């Protein structure tokens, strides 16, 4: 009888610290996502004057939330290796600008809705999926953040909205261009896209 | 410390303080290592694999102008990709032999959205308060219950078929003809979405090829068949006469589309604005979305 109790105690001790560890990525993502939303909602940052400050704050908040190099590598996959170091750097910067506009637009489209962070699902030893759901008027929209642990910080490398992975979606698009063209062609396409904004 | 292995602790009847300390020490050692390992150099063993793949790729396309540059790879985070990074971004694929047709129809639908659907939905949204549009949403969702009931059943989920049946009964009565989703709001009953295309997928039938329908949008060979099945199970299909497609059921469908769009104005614009090639982005999003439905 007593032996069993020890087994149970041992089991409980083994499980306990894992639960404590598990709360960290979720909280990190939650805090950083909320800080982006806060900047977007800030009534003081309206109009032309506030626009620039707003822009800068969003960039700062997004840098905290995302690991753009990791994101870029996972998007390009093996094609990343075809880029020269300079091209890689330029790609990350261009991609970041495009994503920032797209993602910020997407999550702020729901500014009035409630965001609930629900749970964490481990994907590998260093990666975890933080699941959240936005309660919109026409139903819940699940948004999952895939995060990686680097230098003791959890950073987002993929966002999955209603089952659609951001990095996969862009990988398919980039692959069409890189299939028949050198990396420079893709960079040129991205430059044009960024300039248009 | 008198430490003779973990197994011993199962046999001890008393738990002396020193042994407890030993256990905690051991335990922290284990946790400590696993944490360090998890945070640590997990990359290096995989880098070799990725490099091998890179060499294979290189020999495949020798014509690349920057071949020597990629060799001198940076040692920081800008270095070559690992296998995990390559695998993680790989999504489901679909054949697209009819791409010229699909692209043409995509552009047609794009115009239909901006010139007709969006202005109509915007006006509709302006005229009707959100609460009323929500009632319509609930109504149309409730009308589709037979599709969910039958397909949950066909997919070997009779439990969910029963839940969807219960939801249909509750919403059609207490929910006043499906205008309110009382099953969810009052009783917190959660159903499971199911359609015929999904059922075919569960039976192992692939998409076949990607297909874009005028007005209706992205689909595939399999999902188009699925839509036919879903249409047959929708009670509103049988309004307005015995014809499969008639002005009444098309009108109802059009209203459903406008009502749904009124909640999603801006979604398509975001997707299009963020995309490098909106057609490919849409196709990939559709295929990923359907893949997720299959996994559920």
Radius of gyration of chain A: 20 Å
Structural class of chain A: alpha+beta
Low-confidence segments of chain B: 1-70
Question: Largest chain-chain contact?
Answer: A-B, 66 and 62 residues
| Number of helical stretches of at least 4 residues of chain B | 15
Structural class of chain B: mainly alpha
Portion in strands of chain B: under 5%
Given as residue ranges, the uncertain stretches of chain A (5+ residues, pLDDT < 50) are none
Strand content of chain A: 15-25%
User: How many beta strands in the DSSP annotation of chain A?
Assistant: 5
**Count of individual helical segments of chain A:** 6
Oligomeric composition of the shown chains = heterodimer
Major beta-sheet overview of chain B:
2 strands, antiparallel
Could you spell the SSE succession of chain A in H and E letters?
Answer: HHHHEEEEEHH
What is the rounded distance between the termini of chain A?
71 Å
- Gyration radius over CA of chain B: 28 Å
Amount of helix of chain B: 55-70%
| Helix-strand string of chain B | HHHHHHHHHHHEEHHHH
Biggest sheet details of chain A: 5 strands, antiparallel
Global outline of chain B: globular
Characterise the protein shown here.
The complex is a heterodimer of chains A (197) and B (296). Chain A has 197 residues and is of the alpha+beta class. Chain A contains six helices and five strands; from the N terminus they run ααααβββββαα. Chain A is 61% helix and 21% strand. In chain A, a hairpin with a 4-residue loop joins β1 and β2. In chain A, α1 packs antiparallel against α2 (47-65), α3 (68-76) crosses α5 and α4 (85-108) runs parallel beside α6. The longest helix of chain A is centred in the first third of the chain and has 40 residues, at 2-41. Chain B has a two-stranded antiparallel sheet with strand order 1-2. Chain B has 296 residues and is mainly alpha-helical. Chain B has 15 helices and two strands. Chain B is globular, with a radius of gyration of 28 Å. The longest helix of chain B is centred in the middle third of the chain and has 29 residues, at 99-127. Chains A and B meet through α1, α3, α4, β5 and α5 of A and α1, α2, α3, α5 and α7 of B.
